[in-house]
Amino acid sequence: MSIVEMKVPVIGESVNEVTLSQWLKGNGDYVKLDEPICEFESDKATLEFPAEAAGKLIYVASEDDDLEIGALVAKIDTSVAAPVDSSPPATTTPAKEVKKEDPVPASVTYASGHPSPAADKILKENGVTINQVNGSGVDGRITKEDAQKVVAAKTSALATIVKTESPSPTPTANFSRETSRKKMSRMRRTIASRLVSAKNNTAMLTTFNEVDLTEVMKLRKKYQERFVEKYGIKLGFMSLFSKACAKVLMEMPDVNAQIDTDTNEIIYHDFADISIAISTPTGLVVPPVKNVESLKFHEIESAIKELAKKARDGSLTLDEMKGGTFAITNGGIFGSMMSTPILNEPQSAILGMHTIQQRPMAVDGEVKIRPMMYLALSYDHRVIDGSTSVTFLVKVKNLLEDPVTLLMDL
Q1: Residue 298 annotated to the active site
Q2: Regarding predicted confidence, which is higher, 304 or 148?
Q3: Are residues 293 and 246 in contact, defined by beta-carbon separation less than 8 angstroms?
Q4: For residue 9, which of 202, 289, 297, 392 sits 20 to 30 Å off, Cα-Cα?
């Protein structure tokens, strides 16, 4: 018997431990070389773990186990040969008996019938087994949309049964007092740890202002159609806000800096890598759009769209999660009117966007209804002075209220 040990590989400099989120192959299954056998969930991303040899898979670790780098995950018995297909040879069917409606069998791979991380989470939370779902993704992969459809159908069916069998509620029914426990995902644990660290280890303060988005909305309305026609993507608020922040960051390097507590030095950057907060089924991630100061608006929009898609599919790489000199979070998409965003260490500042509301404003001695947004800048007072933070926010406000100056780099 020849055994190959499968151990957790080195994933990145800052990754010391991973969680085995799910097996992609069964215990005792024959696996091929480089065929993914399981998925790891690290602090920042979900990664597939390929087989290092062909043979029989033998489990060592279990799902939801926390494993250090180098820990034994599984063994592969390479002395086991690939299974031989014992099915009888196909016979030739006369042409007249072939039915046009017979479906052409799809290719079957390791992905067939396996859910994506987002889909797996939805299925587990709603008690749906994999064999109840037909995958519509590549090679039969179960996508997030497949899982949502099955859960919606199940909920609808249960509602119908309850309505039929229990036409009226029982007045003497007791209220539920049940509790349940679920292990926190590695990403959720990492987010929790980083938030507590940012709260405890930085001198964090928040300053507020408001911005009149009348001119920005006029700009988008006037040029949106031509913008989409030329670049194939819409001009959104994020690219305008990102570009405004990048311009001011180049003028005010303290807001774009970070502190190195080991050497008591401040690290300055001559570039603006802006981290964009993206909500995913497993938690909030903040991948950076790099060199925003040098990008055009359509390039920023395309980069944000691509990062958001990968984040929600769970396919962001560790390299795509690294870095960032400043962050932007948009709670307005969820209806937040005002908040105090928390720092994304080791960055020294983060801008919080909020919902746009039509409010009466005094303009040149007259009351006018304007689309207004509250802005919040949280900053590390160890690096950034109060006057610097206020000046930064006012400069961003002025650029957005007169976006022509932003376009002309004035």
Answers
A1: no
A2: 304
A3: yes
A4: 289
